């Protein structure tokens, strides 16, 4: 029962306290339509209060030693792992993904807290040979200040933790607005931050149905130094423009249109396995999910048969049922978008091999779908599908497929399968994407830099580079020595 969970919080959290609001909004389970909770609906005025709390806390948090911040983050990490089952259940209930995936997300999210707790201790400065004998040049790295963030519903835990862990490790304080569909996972994170002893005002969460109003405060309040966003490219552009007014630092993790290329020399079974993981994780609702599949013509038929077999064995259902591989889509709008893309593709000449509709007309369960004879001009190849639809195309030459894969405004993730070492380097270097999976369909982890190029955004999360987004470089010139 969700109401038994000690981590079920329905008020907002800043300055180390829980705050209600005059309005509340409902959180529903996409698998059943059941109302899970009514969450306090934070206002822009409350967002300003949270920013004040973060600004106040920044003074003391940034002056702790890295080791002290690290110790607190490690305590948070331990609590996240200790409560992984409960956190995963909350996540599945509000988001829909299968429990095993939800648990994977909690462990993945927690790994960033551990990673950045360790990295916090390695924020090295620099000394630079001076231009004259009486001078010295030193470089310091300092936390940027108050960080605000807006996150999406597809990874209700990890998208927050991935940003917050880096920000807190660097010495910044943090205020996040989670997606309206999935605030419970975010508020549970606040409860565990509180239990971990992270000081008041350092980690703050505001759930709200007023994304625009909260977004305006987060991007325009002069006390905010940096804004970090994960979401759609369209909303990212609006928020980026808002940040421009105050020349705020930004990290933008936006949409993708990932190609998945299978060359004729690939291990086809491994490619099918990688494709299934990359396409159907979270029912296709991740920004690094495969969107376009290009198979070399000589192996297209064999590959398509293997894919069809794998897809028809997927089990769709309530994520709380342990036998399920695929949960529902997040809401009706998401289902309608996927339906429209599939209908458009079929009308334009694509073959519907399986799926192509909801399990029942009024549910949010969209059947795993395979389309063949897809064309680059179809909307299904140009837009982010964000659903369980695998769209197959074929190609003849390496140069051709590289050009087609790159012919998109997006540049987040790309994947390809080949066993030819020369081709592996040529294609990996030629793909205009921030991340490339070579003979691998799942690529994200705390040690690696996650992020995109082109209109998929900028900034990197995770890895030894991840702290840079939250640090300013300060140059000291010592003269008259
Ligand atoms: P998705 O398609 O994944 O829902 P969005 O970009 O619409 O992607 O949403 C990602 C996050 O951005 C969510 O937290 C949402 O509430 C927030 N958001 C959406 N529109 C705006 C806006 N105009 N201003 C600020 N935040 C917004």
Descriptive notes:
This is NAD-dependent succinate-semialdehyde dehydrogenase. Its EC number is 1.2.1.-. Pfam families: Aldedh. Keywords: Oxidoreductase. There is one protein chain. The protein is built from 14 helices and 20 strands. The protein starts with 11 loop residues before the first strand and ends with a strand. The chain has a 7-stranded mixed sheet, with helices on both faces. The radius of gyration is 23 Å and the shape is globular. The model has no long low-confidence stretch (mean pLDDT about 95). The protein is α/β, with parallel strands linked by helices. It has helices at about 45-65, 65-80, 85-95, 100-120, 160-170, 185-195, 210-220, 235-245, 270-280, 295-310, 330-345, 380, 400-405, 420-430, and strands at about 10-15, 15-20, 25-30, 35-40, 125-130, 135-145, 145-150, 175, 205, 225-230, 250-255, 260, 290-295, 350-355, 370, 390-395, 415, 435-440, 455-460, 470-480. Adenosine-5'-diphosphate (ADP) binds near residues 150, 152, 215 and 232. The site of adenosine-5'-diphosphate has 14 residues, from α7 and α8.
For the secondary structure, the number of strands is: 20
Mean of all residue-level pLDDT scores: 97
Q: Determine the number of helices (DSSP H or I, runs of at least 4 residues).
A: 14
How many whole angstroms does the radius of gyration measure? 23 Å
Oligomer: single chain
Q: Would you tell me the structural class of the helices and strands?
A: alpha/beta
Shape designation:
globular
β content, as a range?
A: 15-25%
